[in-house]
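Our preliminary data section would be incomplete without showing what the modeling component actually yields. Below, a chain of 356 amino acids is followed by its predicted structure, encoded as tokens that our downstream tools consume directly.
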Amino acid sequence: MSFFSESKGTASRLTGSFQNSNPKEETIKERKAKSGSGIRGYDVVKTNYTSLPVEIPEDFLQPLENPEENITVQRIEFEKTVLSEYRGAYAVVLDGVLSREECGELIRLVEMSKGGHGNLSGGGGDGDGGENENENELKAPENNGWTPAMVNAGVGYEFLSTEYRNSDRIIWDEKEVVSRLWKRVLQGKGIKEDIGVLEGKRWEGLASLRLRSGERWVSTEQGMNERMRFLRYGAGQYFREHVDGAYGKPDGSECSFFTIHLYLNDSAQELEKDPNTPKFPKDSEMLRGGATTFHSRDMKERLDVDPKVGRVLIFQHRRLLHSGDDVVSGIKYTMRSDLMFRFEDGLEGKDDVVFG
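Predicted structure:
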């Protein structure tokens, strides 16, 4: 059973208002031309995200005893799909990385980082720079700490643009959870070998400037950026098409080259791929829609990776045009971060690679 679905040309889809049934649908450039370049017309605000301390259970997200029985790995071979223009680009789907119970616990913990579930120890602002940002008021947060996701406008600045990005978000900087997550991901067969070290012609196209021929980048000990962006999408919400940018340290010693998505709940369309699963009724509260969709540059073809509890999607930043498709019903929970690499200057041994 395939983990993704493809559509070509004018194929009909059950993914809400954002469909490719019109061959003249606006491209990114056309949309920007209409709305104006840059961030003119938007209120740019200074942001500073902080979190409350959260006690992480010792047994939470520990390595699996038999990962080969739990985690399946399937690479997306773009050249064999309707998106053959992305030939050679790296993307991989891992299923079974987290259990349903672990995903639910992760949502609870991130909400606690904003004061949800009675975690009112003080000291965690909502990041909006408002007058209450530094006040340790012992009161439960609205919406368990979820606030509208904003768009980056430079280091420490963001703006709200719901026509482009419409969802709620919690940002959580938590090294221990990130470290455990990465160790679990590395239990997937072949992941260490695939992206533990980036060097040689295989990866020259991964970045336009940073990964030149002869350079060698190795996975950091932590693996992932400690900043986790948890996203919650309700009916009618989305993240329009874009290409992810790299995150790097100012001194150039570390840089990200890949995006990692963790899906925290199931979608109806994913479960219904199993012929033994009955169709969910239209009025069900089950999530429908919300795929991570890779698009052709002309926006006429697409490949969907549908949400599935415990599923991880890893893909390179560069070249891959993608979106968070409209949620038709239910709620979608996901977490996004970056995979971090450090530049190796040649003084260290070839075998000096840390996998966490």
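The longest helix spans residues 100-112. The chain has one domain: 42-344. Preliminary results of this kind motivate Aim 1 of the renewal.
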